[in-house]
């Protein structure tokens, strides 16, 4: 298999020289499918991973499950989240399950220690071990469980039994989630490479152009079925109202959406993926960093896109520059370098 050489999107500077760089690809698309900006190979199918959780959450609202179980904004935001396992994250996932009459035993995402160090230390100090509630995908899975419970009620069967194996591609819950993903992206999931995500559900390779189109549809509702369009509006509003639940303390997605509100819906995914909806501009975007770097390269690119495309006041622009041009310090707090969006990226976005 051959790959197109993607351009440098981010430079790592030390002593005024480029020490290393992060290459990748980027697509910005409107809801009609018009390509507004492209860098690198945007046609190669890539796994979006957790960047598309809002697409996977559309059935939670469109099915009526969110209303049936009285889910709050915090709970809907958590259904779109890759959270840090902080106490409020775990308790909100527990609340979703309790409203559906189930507990953490229904989750099939697996357990891991919280990504948040303070939460991990607190668990260990109490002599406790993590549960599936601390999994960064527990909110998404709790949403799946709510959808499955509604399906079980309609079928007149016991929910716990109905839900077993809900992470498998052939389960009715995953078929509904896959259908929402395919409808939003316009990409045939049956004819593309498929794998298993870190939380055990199916993940499908989709070109950046199609991922960006899906997020333009999330931004505008245009091109979505009425139920999914209404679900997109509600999920965006929920995330804007409760951005802490999408990621957590100090994280890019939470901090940016706390500051910019409904002007930006952004979501990171594993292996250098990032997607965003920009409702005021009617645009969607998708980013893939070749080296799979999330915390450095992808965040700088996303910040540069927001700076270029989103209406910002002076204070907001200064806020975003902390992400698009961060200073690197060593363990003594001495400034040693910086990250910068490449000139090629800035020029393409201008």
TrEMBL record:
InterPro entries reported for this sequence: Asparaginase_II (IPR010349)
Stored PANTHER family: L-ASPARAGINASE, PUTATIVE (AFU_ORTHOLOGUE AFUA_3G11890)-RELATED
The organism of origin for this protein: Pseudaquabacterium terrae
Name of the protein in its database record: Asparaginase
Pfam families with a match to the protein in the record: Asparaginase_II (PF06089)
Domain of life: Bacteria
